[in-house]
Amino acid sequence: MASGGFSFKAYSLFDTLVWIACLNVLWIIFTVLGGVVFGFGPSTAAAQLLVRDKVRGGAAPLVRRFAREYARNFGKGNALGFPLVAVGVALTLNWDYFSAGWDLGSQIASTGLFMMALFGAGVACYLFPMFARYHLSVPQYFLMSSRFAMRHLAGTVILVFVTAAALFVCRSVPGLIPFFGIGAWLYVTGWLCDRFFTANDEAMAGALSADAPAGTPAAGATAAVVTRGAGIA
């Protein structure tokens, strides 16, 4: 029994690693096909939709599903991705400028920009997994991701740490990037966000059910609505 259990776990681990590697390759290919700038957002949106299915036990064909979700969410993916790129570039350029100065004002500004970048990284980690789970407008995704990042600081710290660790490993071993670097980050952050959102939805549903009068159908119906976006922050 123990040997069988170990064999099953080893097979599951190997299967997940192969799946992550395939996701990594697909993300790179479709990002390049979109000219990088126009491919980053749709590729990330498609990847997080597949990650959510994977962590929930789904087994849809990877290539076909990725291509379908990439095309279906091309516009919305870019609407989510462009602001992230713009803010990231702006923060980087400003930090480079102020960090080069040695006066007190420059150091304060560079520290503030660094803290803003950390918070922005946390918001970015939530953004596309939230897109994969909830049906919201584009402005609401940014608003809810920001609110979730502020209200769930422990989870935000974990996501930022995972991101920093992924960047460190990829910089230390660049050969991992074409095979696992991006896919592993997408998978781990998507898995973590799915757990965070589920815990939050269950807490919100429990609170609403407790507030509703006993025996009313509104209690169960409201709990179902919460998971569609109203109670994510």
Descriptive overview:
This protein is mainly alpha-helical. It has one domain. Helices cover 85% and strands 0% of the residues. The longest helix is centred in the C-terminal third of the chain and has 35 residues, at 177-211. The chain is globular and about 60 Å long. Residues 216-230 have low confidence and may be disordered.
Average pLDDT, rounded to a whole number, is 84
Can you summarize the main beta sheet? none
Count of DSSP strands: 0
Q: What is the domain tally?
A: 1
Approximately how much beta-strand content do the residues carry? Answer: under 5%
Order of helices and strands: HHHHHHHHH
Share of helical residues: over 70%
Category by helix and strand content: mainly alpha
Q: Categorize the overall geometry.
A: globular
Gyration radius over CA: 20 Å
> Separation of termini?
44 Å
Please tally the helical runs, counting DSSP H or I stretches of 4 or more residues.
9
Uncertain stretches: 216-230
